[in-house]
Amino acid sequence: MSRPVRKKAARKTPAERSAEITDAARDVALEQGLYAVTLRSVAARIDVAPALVAHYEPNMDALIASTFGTVVATELAEVAALLAPLPTPRERLAQLLDTLLDGTRADVTVIWVEAWAMGRRNEALAQRVRDEMDDWHAFLLGIVESGVAAGEFETDDAASVAWQLLGMIDGLNAHALVRWADSSSDLGDRGARLGQAVEGMLGIARGALTGP
Amino acid sequence: MSRPVRKKAARKTPAERSAEITDAARDVALEQGLYAVTLRSVAARIDVAPALVAHYEPNMDALIASTFGTVVATELAEVAALLAPLPTPRERLAQLLDTLLDGTRADVTVIWVEAWAMGRRNEALAQRVRDEMDDWHAFLLGIVESGVAAGEFETDDAASVAWQLLGMIDGLNAHALVRWADSSSDLGDRGARLGQAVEGMLGIARGALTGP
DNA sequence: TCTACTATTGATCAATCGATCAATAAGTTG
DNA sequence: CAACTTATTGATCGATTGATCAATAGTAGA
């Protein structure tokens, strides 16, 4: 005979409560994926009535879209911060591949994959996905172009190369999502192997990226 | 006042009806994705009561898993048949990249992406996904190894290269899913650009794959 | 202290989903 | 033609989902 333990949620500032809901949605997404971000799951996580979440958000499609956006934007900011101190484009690129393919961010990968699927039925989300992809592309493009300018890389179409890089990274991560426990896919070696492909794309000598 | 037009479905052989259901599920998946494969959508497509579909399938998770399997296995068979007549591994690889990246199979790409996401909540599907990935990997591995044997390719880890190839293809296709109307991603050029990366991975001279 | 505002809730709806089961009717067999 | 098998159905259940709305109860300002 256990009744719901919640009596009544403490009254908070709209700004506070809104942030709380946003954070809860992000946590649910990171832990269980975008499909688990529901009116009730978000409400339960902050011990509040489902109607309150609905009160603060225009609709669930919007909350899911914004949740995707903040998670992915945060990821990009983290990676950018990680690469910033590195002196050369070559080192930044090597570090980028390393950190994105080490399996540490599987929770974010799930969100990407789910977003590609969900985007077909959630236009707000689809738009956010395109926006975040553009941001990531711009980031990669910056690295590639600075490398070309420094004479480290060689390509006649940096923008296209940047898209290819992004596609490779996402594809390999999506695969790892399903086969993470598989030794034959050689998780530890993914970065190095992709490095060889990238060396090919950028006209770098073999090992220049994966080596020291 | 339009009542349902269906009076009573013609009685059919279990084998016939079962095949009909299987086909309907496949069609729904190709047209609207795996998430649209529901008891009712499949039943409606062949003008039959939802309970009949439930009668023929153990449960929807199983039907979705087997639907994924047949769609993807068919795709592999088609591609294999397309490459079979080509004389050299280099030509087969070039053709493979070409046909898989020309945007013709977006419907199958949707199914792949949805399967990666759904697999986390549908163990039967997850197993099928791994199986089909293994089949694709084996297929690519065959091409790579024959190329190495013929002296056209050069690598010390063909299995790993095959996984990388698969990951790249899937990632680029997933991206195209969201940005199909985008000219900046240069759909037509995807194959050629990936070709350069692959040339790098396999130690082929630039242009040997993308050229004539 | 009293009043106005509004954050919060419970109740409730309509959709959609997978699943079960007794009843019906179409064939098949003897 | 009668008896039997079984393909097919309608009805229905329980879960989930997003969403709405009148009622309630903190809180700030007059």
UniProtKB/TrEMBL annotation, chains A, B:
Signal peptide annotation: none
Domain BetI-type transcriptional repressor C-terminal positions: 89-179
Keyword DNA-binding on entry: yes
Keyword Phosphoprotein carried by entry: no
Alphabetical UniProt keywords: DNA-binding, Repressor, Transcription, Transcription regulation
InterPro entries: BetI_C (IPR039538), Homeodomain-like_sf (IPR009057), HTH-type_TetR-like_transc_reg (IPR050109), HTH_TetR (IPR001647), Tet_transcr_reg_TetR-rel_C_sf (IPR036271)
Location of the HTH tetR-type domain: 21-65
Pfam families, sorted: TetR_C_6, TetR_N
Stated name of the protein: TetR family transcriptional regulator
Native source species: Agromyces allii
